[in-house]
Each structure stands twice: as structure tokens, then as C-alpha cells.
Request: fold
Amino acid sequence: MVSLTADMSPLHPDRNLALELVRATEAAAIRSVPFIGRGQKELADGAAVDAMRAFLSTVNFDGVIVIGEGEKDNAPMLFNGEHVGTGRGPQCDIAVDPIDGTTLTAEGRNNALSVLAVADRGAMLDASSVFYMDKIVTGPAGVGVVDIRLPVAENVHRLAKALGKPVDEMVVSVLNRPRHARLIEEIRASGAGTRLMSDGDVAGGINAARHNARTDMCVGIGGSPEGIVTACAIKALGGHIQGRLWPRDDEEKQRGIDAGLKLDDHVYEADEMVTGKNTIFVATGVTNGELVAGVRREGDYVYTESVVLRGASGTLRRISSEHLTSKWL
Reply:
């Protein structure tokens, strides 16, 4: 049964749904355990996809996947347009990434997550026809202060002033990619430090937006689906996110135009990426990271840590769970 709260009708995602969805990210994270550090990212992703799909089928909601997993890198999929849930309860848009950081998982490195985001039906931007997005993410201090259209050095100095921090104490996260070589140089030339991420820019964006985080800003070109997922979390954190779609060639640009996406340097603000406040973001750690601890197996138990962020209430909840291995592995 879907509860009626002060800020919701029974037709919207609510707090009970948020807690139910944790089961799906926990399942995906747990199923990936045998593949952590084994160099088999496709097998890890496939196991996580199957587990997430199975648990989503038990949840009382009418979900349609707007942002599916696997289209960018030819991995197993929870595909765009797939219906999930029992069909009873609130009608929702769903964004999924059973493992955000499949390479991190395969190599046993930090910051791999299992991720779900939910919003009202029709609320999420479907940016799937253009795979990449140039993004900037900060915490609440960046609202009305930084702008993706400005040089990164100016944004660093503006945010430092807003935070009351010396520029040389500022830390900016960016994916460690050849396309970001000049961006990294500009960040360092501004006086700030960098935290280079090998993968997992959802975690990078959320960590930059959290209160008392170790990083102050996350910038650069990453997946457009990850940008929409991050926007759902930023709604709960009160932070700032902007994005510009980044087609790789003319053919992809035309696909974006045909899909009705805004290109030519159009800046998507948070409310264009995900409309309204009824957002839910759920993540369970696959490997250890700043946001959550990774899955840990000890004897007869598997331990997981998850976060649940709700845009309607502006809350971040941590959920620590222990699971009997005999039921899972």
C-alpha cells in the first residue's frame, strides 16, 4: 500500500517506496561480490542487472525505465521503456545503473555503486540519444554563484569566495580522461587541487554536493544518463548542477535533435533534467568509497551500506544491513 504523506498524494513516489527500492540496489551490489577484482566487468554487470530486475518486479509501483543501463558500452541491459514493478501504486520514471563503475568493480577499486533514481512520470529528461554531457556540480554554496558557461578558474574562485575558503584549499573532481587534459591544467593553474576519478562520476558529483565533503566541485564530460541520476540526488542535497549535451559526432547530434533535445551549448539546469521535487535517489556501495562502504563478506554474513535521498524532504538516510550468505551467495 502506498502511504499518503503531507507533501505527497498516493500517486507520487513516497518514503515507503524509497525504502523498498534499497532492496534492489542491495541485491545488485551483493550479486556483484564474486566478480570484484576479477577483471570481468561484463559478468559483474550482468549479475547486477539480473538481481536488480528481479527485485524491482516485487515493488508496488508502476515504473518505466527512462534511463536504462548498458546502451553506452554494450553491456547487459535494463532497457529504456522497460516496465518494472507490480504495476500498482505510483507511476514513476526510473533511472538505473546496477553498477556505476563496472571497471572499478572489475579492478577492485573504490567508488563503485549500485544506483537507482525515481521521479514522477514524465519528470526525467530522456537524454539517451546523446551519450555524454558536460557537467558542473557543487553544494548549496554554488547556487547562483558558479555557471558552466564561465571558465573553470573563475568558477573555482567564485566558489572559494562563497565557501570562505582559500583557493589553494579547493579540490575539484574530474574524470581522468584525455579529453580533460586542458581542463585539469586550468583547474591546477587556478590554484586549486584536483581529485582525478578513473570512473564513477555519479559518486563524484554527489560527494561534491554533500555537506562537509572532501571535494568542492565536480566538473567535466561524463555520461548523460549519469547526469540525470545525479540531478535526482542534487534535488535532495540542495546543491547545484548544470549540464550541456556533448555529441561525439554529427550523426549523434542529429539523433539528439530528432529526439527533441536541446543542443548548441544549451545549458540544462536541474529543473530541466528532473522536474519537481518528488525525487528519490538510492545507492548501495559495491566497493568502498566516500559516499558509502562497499559490500563486505564475513563468514555467514554479507554487510551492505546504502544511502537514500529524497528531494521532497531534503533528507539523506544511511541504511546498514546484514544479510545471511546462505540466502544470497
Observations:
- The longest helix spans residues 15-31.
- DSSP finds nine helices and 14 strands in the chain.
- The CA atoms of residues 116 and 206 lie 14 Å apart.
- Confidence is low (pLDDT under 50) at residues 1-10, 70-76.
